[in-house]
Amino acid sequence: MFKFVMILAVVGVATALAPVSRSDDVHADVVSRSDDVRADGFDSSLHTSNGIEQAASGDVHGNIHGNFGWISPEGEHVDIKYVADENGYQPSGAWIPTPPPIPEAIARALVWLQSHPPAPEHPRHH
């Protein structure tokens, strides 16, 4: 249940921090909402009139699969999927930043270093 509350908090913060570009966003209405809490897990969903969406399913072990999204100020649909389980929170989607590729010169240097280990150091005797 703690993970569920944390995920909803993350969604709340993400939607609260999303820049508001349309004046009608402050007057957004809940178009649909569904919450089904059972002994073996839960299912929830939310859709608002300004394009904010959220859905999540959880099981008795605390594993959660879900997604949330909104419309960016540029009019693009931002969609994030996630899993929260024993391996932590794992978001995915085109909007999640990824590291740039390793430059070719650095990759070659790493290969060279792996194939040429340093000689063992011998302690100096004084």
UniProtKB/TrEMBL annotation:
GO terms for molecular function: structural constituent of chitin-based larval cuticle. PROSITE patterns: CHIT_BIND_RR_1, CHIT_BIND_RR_2. One of its GO terms (cellular component) is chitin-based extracellular matrix. InterPro entries: CHIT_BIND_RR_consensus (IPR031311), Cuticle_Struct_Prot (IPR050468), Insect_cuticle (IPR000618). Keywords: Cuticle, Signal. The keyword Iron-sulfur does not apply. Residues 1-16 form the signal peptide. The keyword Acetylation does not apply. This is Larval cuticle protein 2. It comes from Drosophila mauritiana (Fruit fly). The lineage of its organism: Eukaryota, Metazoa, Ecdysozoa, Arthropoda, Hexapoda.
